[in-house]
Design brief:
By secondary structure, this protein is mostly helical. Helices cover about 75% and strands about 0% of the residues. It folds into two domains: about 5-240, Rhopdopsin 7-helix transmembrane proteins (Up-down Bundle); about 245-375, Arc Repressor Mutant, subunit A (Orthogonal Bundle), CATH 1.10.10. It starts with a helix and ends with a helix.
Amino acid sequence: MSIIKAFPIISILLGCFLTFFIIQTKNSFGKNNVAKYSLALVVFLYTLVSVGNYIDSNHYEVPLYVSFISFISFTFVGISFYYFCASVIDRRIGFKPIMLTVVIYGVFKVWFFIYLVEIIGSRETMNMLLHKPYKPVIIYAIYDYIVSCLLNIFFIYRAYILFKTTPLIVALNTKREVYFKWINLLFFINFAVIFSLMVQVILVLLGIGSLDIIFMIEPIVYTVYFFVFVYSLMYFPVFAFTGDYHDLPKNIKEKYKNSSLNNSEELFKKVDKLVIKDKLFLFSELKINTLSEKLGTSVPHISQAINENKNISFSDYINSFRINEAKKKLLVEKPDTIFAIAIDVGFNSKATFYHAFKKLTNTTPTEFRKRQDEELMV
């Protein structure tokens, strides 16, 4: 067996292993099961695509729907990756129109490919259609693949924006900083994989290259992508985004468990007093390390004290002060713009402010101000 032919098998085996590993792991994603399962879905979808490519490139006599399942799976890679990223940073996502569009499009693809299975009938006919000159049904499939690529690229970009606009609330040491850079590489590789495949398909549409080359290259790209996944998942810094004690890596929890916090209530009172007295919540670059240095205690112990006494993460704890301050500013006679208020109370972007406000008050800043105005008129 040549090295090139071995890549699809490696990609499939590695994808299966990673899917199982992500579902079983209790260390990388803290208490966030949505993040864990959505990432497992991303890897599983890529694995299904690899299975389809392996079958098509070797012309195996298997039912046609196996190839079509992998083709349909590719449509949902981007949206699954977006949900994973949103879950990691604790960002709630409504069922937006674009997501409804993807679902409707996916349902249409399922219906269309069921129809194709009935029309094509056999694997032998399918193999003939994959050779030039391409029949209209294959041309449609190529256009469909390009649309799927564009949808995936859109959601990957949206996921990247989520990460860029969500500040880290824990200062990372040099070693952790290196690990964190792998997250950026993860975005780049995910984007590069889909973009390069889309370019290849467009070239086929223009009469340059062939589908056989794509079937050969795609598994190689997926294999490299899975290897990067393996490394980055080992050190995914969920705690750096949430500050939640439950999201600490298991080894760090064990370390501080042995030197247990004797009085979390007393420590929390010190934290509360410091945050309120110095109005630390107004600083957009505030990190849990700042409190750690001022109080002379560890980051995990501060996180534990907040969690045990308020039952919320450090991020939500600080944002609660910011939201209360924002409410006061929203209710003045001539309030500033929402963006100006967001910056004034310690948020680094309007999007982050909206998310925190909605999460803690179950309404948006605009709705809150409108509701208060209506109550005053009554």
